[in-house]
Amino acid sequence: MKVLGIETSCDETAASVVDDELHVHSSVIESSLDEHRAFGGVVPELAGRAHVMMIASVVERALVEAGLDPRNPDIDAVAVTSGPGLIGSLLVGLSAAKGYALAWGKPFVGVHHLEGHLFAPLLEMPDLPWPMLTLLVSGGHSMLVLQHGPGSHEILGETIDDAAGEAYDKVARWLGLGYPGGPEIDKLAQSGDAKALQLPKSMTGDGYDLSFSGLKTAVVRATEKQGGLAVEDVAASFQGAVAEQLLRKVRQALEKNEVKALSLAGGVAANSALRRGITELGDEFGIPALLPSMKMCTDNAAMIAAAGVYRFQHQGASPMNLSANPNWQLADLS
Amino acid sequence: MTIARTCSNDEKTQRAGEDFGLLLRAGDIILLTGRLGAGKTTFTKGVAKALGVKERVTSPTFTMVRQHGCHNSQGIETLHHGDMYRIESAGEVADLALGELVEENGVAVVEWGELASEIFGPRAISIHFEVHEDESRTLSVHGEFDETRRQEFAEWAKR
User: Fold this and answer.
1) Whether B37 and A139 lie within 8 Å, measured CB to CB
2) Is the pLDDT of residue B121 over 90?
3) Which residues of B touch A45 (CB under 8 A)?
4) What count of Cα atoms within 13 Å lies in the side-chain half-sphere of residue B27?
5) What's the confidence (pLDDT) of residue A39?
6) CA atoms within 13 A on the CB side of A177
């Protein structure tokens, strides 16, 4: 069984063909990031327009690279991200997917973007032991998920205010750095002193919830009050505090739950401090720590196709009147 | 006369939001302005509490508008929590259709609302957050209100 996956929930226009053994036959990603860079963030109108311009060629390339006839491909379903994300961007992918499904007479499946992220590690390492603990951190989401098996997820905790990637982007813009903020801050942090700034520890209590808003405000306050702070030191201190909080919660979850594998997902998984910390925790607890490649951590359509395979096999096709849900909660997924 | 209330910490900012939420009427659009970390989301959490929102209110920067169902005696059924941080043009603000959304027994609280004031003009209630040296915040309310509202807001400022 082969599924065509389509992803347009934010920056990336992506399409991919994946089979039911989770082999990736093709994965094409076009990003409108360069256009957004100039504005210090995703510009919704630009994102929507860019998706419209790229979607047809991206889908065609994904089919051709998978050795399929782009006019009448031998696939079993079309899967697409139907939420959460930017409404204008989601609608481009959703409308295209419905159009292809109708034209080719194939079933159509709406996929939750975050479930896609949770499937990403499986595409590179299919024989994982369960249960698996995944730290999912991106520009729009930050959560700690205990997966009992594919498609079975328990959210242990999530951010009570800003997403980790959002805090990175906002601090970066505040410091006059480029977008996306993560790589910029990560790069500067390498040559900075993480102890230069005293930043508060998150106060989310004993549970697994996360908080980044106070940290963001503390950076703003510190840079306003103390002139002449080296930007490298601010970056290193901020990054250190973000990683400390995330890794502390991961450790806590490893101590209190039966976990056989640990993984990272979402765009912030590119962060060097986080990758190092997760590897160390895996070693310490004697379990495999999976660090998916960057192309699997950031938005892509292979993960959407993989989640689509699972949803199609377990729940069948989605109705053709399925609408985009920009606020779709992972917890609402049955 | 300026209507302004000073809050010495986060809890008081949230409390100011909660008190303000009780004064809202269906159809209201509130634009929040002020720099990063000024307390806009904290204030909105207070408004949500007053309106009887059960779920957690988090930053809407990613999806730009989040909808929360409300449970209150003010006749407000939905809180539209918007965020213009990533928006570049007034046209995109119009695309979010907040003005139409609040007509269905809703209210909108919009963070980074500077751009949105071009669209909504005096119809909106603007609240500016100013952060002082000692970390206290002054919240000043602007807009064109009838006399009843002006008095209600002036009472709010005194608390």
Assistant:
1) no
2) no
3) 88-89, 91-92, 95
4) 3
5) 58
6) 21
